[in-house]
Amino acid sequence: MASTEREQDTPERKSNPVGQPETTRLRPRAVVRVNAGAMRAQPLVGVLCLIAGIAAARGQDAAFEIASVKINTSGAPVSRMTAPDGTGRFEATNVPVRMLILNAYGIPGFQLVGGPSWVDSLRVDVLGRGAANATRAEISAMVRTLLAERFNLLVRRDRREMPVFALVVARTDRRLGPRMQASTADCSTAAAPGAPAPQTASGQLLCTTRMSPSTINAGGMTMARLAQTLSGIVDRVVTDETKLPGGYDLQLSFTPERTPPPGAQPPADPDAPSIFAALQEQLGLKLDARRGMVEMLVIDRIDQPKEN
Q1: How far is CA 34 from the centre of its chain?
Q2: Alpha-carbon gap, residue 245 to 182, rounded angstroms
Q3: Would you state the pLDDT for residue 193?
Q4: Cβ-based neighbour number of residue 95 at 10 Å
Q5: Which parts of the chain sit beneath pLDDT 70?
Q6: In angstroms, rounded to a whole number, what is the distance separating the alpha carbons of residues 247 and 163?
Q7: At what angle do helices 97-105 and 136-150 cross, to 10 degrees?
Q8: Alpha-carbon gap, residue 272 to 253, rounded angstroms
Q9: pTM for this one?
Q10: Are 154 and 303 in contact (CB under 8 A)?
Q11: Distance between CA 211 and CA 288 in Å, rounded?
C-alpha cells in the first residue's frame, strides 16, 4: 500500500560536515509517515496523527512555562542576571541584548559577531519560570528558546583564524611564582555545606574560587580552569599548555584590561601590574601570543523583542 511522507522541522540540532557552519535553528527533518489509504478512508484520523507528531517534535524544545520580556528604558548603569538553584527561575534586569545572548550560549564576548548596533544598546528585562528542578544547563536552553521565539534570533557556528594565547610556564627551569603552589587540601572534607570557605592565614582560599575585576583567589584550581578564566579577562581564547597536572592554590592581583563600568568598585590597588606582568611575576606563568582556529557564534538575524 502506498504511503506519503510529510516533513516537519524538529528542535534537534544537526552536526554539519567538518568546516561547514552550523545553524542552530536549521533543524533536521522529522518524517511523519501517514498511510495514504488510511488518509483517504479516515482523513480526520490521519490529520490528527500528523498534528500529534508535529506537536511532539516541537515539545522537545526546552522552554519556560511562563516568560516575560520588556524593554528597559530606565538608563540605570547596573545590569543584573540571576538563576538561583532549585527555583527554575531566570531573571535579567536592564541587560543588553548581547549580554543575554552571551549568557544563553555560555561564550565570552569576542566569540559573538554580527547583528545590528542596537544589540549592544537595547536593554531588556526578562523573567522566566520553569520547573523548580531545572538545571543551569536547562535554564540556558530555555533562554535560547526565548531568544528564538521573542527576538527571532537566528545564529550559526563558524570557525575563524584569530589571535589566541597559550598559557605556559614562564621559566625554563619551570619554577613557579611566589603566589602559586600545588594544592594539598582534601576538598572532600575541607568544609561542611554552607560553612565559610576555608583559608590560610595569608588569605589563600582552599577548595574554592573568589574573583573580582582585579583579583583571582583560588584553591585547587586546575590550569585548564585558569586558562578558561583568563580567556574572559583578555578577550581571547586561552589554551592550557603548561603541562602542570592537578590543582593549585593561587592569588593574582592585576589592573583590569577593560575600564570598569559606571558604578563599579575601583581596583583595590590602582598601581597593580597588567594581567600579563602579574601572571609572570606572581604565578610564574605567561601568555604566549599565537594564532589559531576559534569557534565563533554568528548572528544571521535578530529582531527587536516582542514585549508582553
Answers
A1: 41
A2: 9
A3: 54
A4: 20
A5: 1-60, 187-197, 260-268
A6: 28
A7: 140
A8: 7
A9: 0.61
A10: no
A11: 23
